[in-house]
Amino acid sequence: MAKTNKAQEIGFQIVSLAGDARSLYLECLDTLRKSTKANLKSSISSIEKKMKEAEDLLNECHVKQTDMLQAEAQGKAQPFAYLMVHAQDHLMTTILLKEMLASFIDLYKKAF
């Protein structure tokens, strides 16, 4: 098996963290979808806790991403890794899901 480089290792970490955050956001979306006018307030309270947990995971991703960018700016770039491209895709789509979920929550609040 080939030795992994730092970009690949960080890519694995970002995929894992962003994937965990994505799963939490999807759980939130499911909870919101099943909410009724009667339980919306408690549903949103539960959702906000999970969203905070997911946000913490995304913050870990950003730290790892920023470390790589700073290293590259200092001339310590790692060899190209397709895994890192894949990781960036996971991170970007998870951030999009987070933003859409926030909009859905606002819509539900206005509707009820």
Give the DSSP E fraction (strand runs of 2 or more residues): under 5%
Low-confidence stretches: none
Name the overall outline: elongated
| Structural class estimated from helices and strands | mainly alpha
Intertermini distance: 56 Å
What does the radius of gyration come to? Answer: 17 Å
Mean pLDDT: 94
| Helix and strand pattern | HHH
Q: Given the structure, what is the number of helices? A: 3
**What is the number of strand segments?**
0
Share in helix: over 70%
Can you summarize this structure?
The protein is an all-alpha fold. It has 3 helices and no strands.
Describe the 3D structure.
There is one protein chain. The chain is an all-alpha fold and about 110 residues long. It contains 3 helices and no strands. The protein has helices at about 5-35, 40-75, 80-110. Helix 1 (about 5-35) packs antiparallel against helix 2 and helix 1 packs parallel to helix 3 (about 80-110). The model has no long low-confidence stretch (mean pLDDT about 95).
Question: Which tags fit this structure?
Answer:
mainly alpha, elongated, 112 residues
